[in-house]
């Protein structure tokens, strides 16, 4: 991922989700974690097991 793409992703996450991540954390994101973030942000029902599993993976990669 080039630096321009990284900045665009960072700004989108900050604007849409009020999520502030370092460049390393952005590189560690998965499509599954982005899907869950988007679904939660839109108020869409997400399977609880999927949400918890993705949340656990996401938080462990962030070090939380």
Structural notes for this entry:
This protein has 64 residues and is mainly alpha-helical. It has one domain (3-62). The protein has helices at residues 3-17, 23-28, 31-42, 48-62. It is globular and about 35 Å long.
Question: TL;DR?
Answer:
The chain is mainly alpha-helical and 64 residues long. It is 75% helix and 0% strand.
Radius of gyration: 12 Å
Strand content: under 5%
Question: In the residues, how many domains can be counted?
Answer: 1
For the largest beta-sheet, the strand count, sense and barrel status come to:
none
Structural class label: mainly alpha
Fold topology:
Layout: H1 3-17, H2 23-28, H3 31-42, H4 48-62
Keywords summarizing the entry:
64 residues; mainly alpha; 4 helices
């Amino acid at each position: 991922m080039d630096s321009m793409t990284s900045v665009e992703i960072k700004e989108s996450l900050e604007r849409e989700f009020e999520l502030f991540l370092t460049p390393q954390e952005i590189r560690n994101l998965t499509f599954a974690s982005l899907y869950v973030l988007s679904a939660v942000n839109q108020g869409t029902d997400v399977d609880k097991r999927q949400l918890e599993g993705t949340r656990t993976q996401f938080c462990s990669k962030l070090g939380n």
